[in-house]
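Q: How would the structure tokens look for this protein?
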Amino acid sequence: MAEFRVAAIFSNHMVLQRGKNVKIFGEGEDGRTVVVEFRGQRAEAVVYGGRWCAILSPMAASVKRAAGESPDDSYGDGFAGSTMTVSCCGKTYTFTDVVVGEVWLAGGQSNMEFELQNCRGGREFLENDKDPGVRFYYTQKNAYKDEHFYEAERNSSWSTYDKERAKCWSAVGYFFAKRLSAELGFPVGVIGCNWGGTSASCWMDQDTLLRDVELSSYVEDYEAAIAGKSEQEQIAEYRAYEIYDAEWNERAALCYAEDPAMSWDEVQRRCGVNQWPGPMGCINPFRPAGLYECMLQRVMPYTLRGFIYYQGESDDHKPKMYERLLRELIAKWREDWDDVNLPFLMVQLPMHRYAADPDYKHWCLIREAQMRVFETVKNTGIAITLDLGEFNEIHPKEKEAVGERLAFQAMWLVYGLCTKKRAFGPVFKDVVQCGGELLVSFDCAEDGFEIRTNGVPGITAAGDSNVFCSGEGGCASPLVLSAGFEIAGADKKFVPAEAVKDAGQKNVLWLSAEGVDKPVYARYCWTNFGEVNYFGKNGLPMAPFRTSRRDEETEPETVQDKGTEIRQVMEL
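A: Here is the predicted structure in token form.
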């Protein structure tokens, strides 16, 4: 007999989505009736196939408690909560301090996972933020369904804000929700569903991957890796790796304590080869579809407003597949939540390159894929974060700006609280060849451009021309590399370009370069890491771009450095 249960994501302090039918679901014995009571509503559901789902009608958001009102039903964010009961066959679950507001799922890998306590200014935020109106549910990180899996899941719950509970929350998710709560006046709940170092293929079902002849390679690679191994052998192999990895990390920590700048090769020489991500198998969290089954499915179809998503770093070994991979992920998540219009807000990858690596330009292709998905898939948003990256560090510490930019995407796309122009810096629109120059126009740049130098000494902006010049001797020698623009003729050989504002149109730049008499192609910040100089008047960076996908003289190099993949793991 199946035991009556409510799904683990329903707990005290939870946030329910306002203005939509709200699904309450769980497990039970077939034929039994489940009754849900909340805010004067009574909803019933019959268990079928071991599952049940009751639906509450749309509700208004919870409001702040009035001054002097009893705080007994409030837990630090000032919103008045209510009690929900879920009953079946004499057993009743009672959930207290349940509020109604906005609910977003925060998906992706380590930069979404990155904890509030570790981000820039995080400790200060934790000490000083009061009643931010944010609640958080962290989907338990367990990649294999054993007895420990179900026990840990039963112990998971929603939490309200205080400096101890919030320190391990997603920094990006927190700042996103904090800004939305301030703008909307409602509580905002974040469902953390992320894991460092993961490919998008980890967050999709196997059938979706296999339907596509190219994406099926993710599954085929996995099946080749486990060929001939029983499940018990796979588990034993991975457990042995976990012991080795823990010991390796202890040795590596001593190396970095001795010399924080120690090279990756030297660390491995001293500590042995780093074996991350470990042997592939049924227990490895980086296997395709694994976290879809062990994390995402465990919270679906909890009623949401939408998704925020920060990922792509771990798919840079197959950058030309990423657009298709991301499209399929969005479609699958919307299908699973039974809402083809659910907003999906993504973070475009910032600048990044390890000091030991050449510029493979594969992150350029990931950024381009993310932008093309935004441009062609309905109800998507994209936060441009090109300027927020750090050299030789895949986990930039500036997360408040990332969360804020995602919030502006939501305020524009979902809530209608700001214009598209406020949510974006300049975005490439069109290019026209005019003699020996290219005339490039931009959306969201009606007020013109702002030039920044990222604090690099000896560089200034040259008056109204917006051409970068050396700090000595005026503008006799433009430092065109600083601007990030390049152009090429039909030979596809790119050279640094000079960018000059148009006197009559604020959203236009003229690009030219000595030796390129008939330019055909242009691109901006087409590099894994470089200085970001062009911004809109609202302070948001120009989105990277190239004017044609046919501009490649050769295919981009393939990433060979295993260390690049290894260093994408973040120890929390």
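The mean pLDDT is 90.

The chain has 14 helices and 26 strands.

Upvote if useful.
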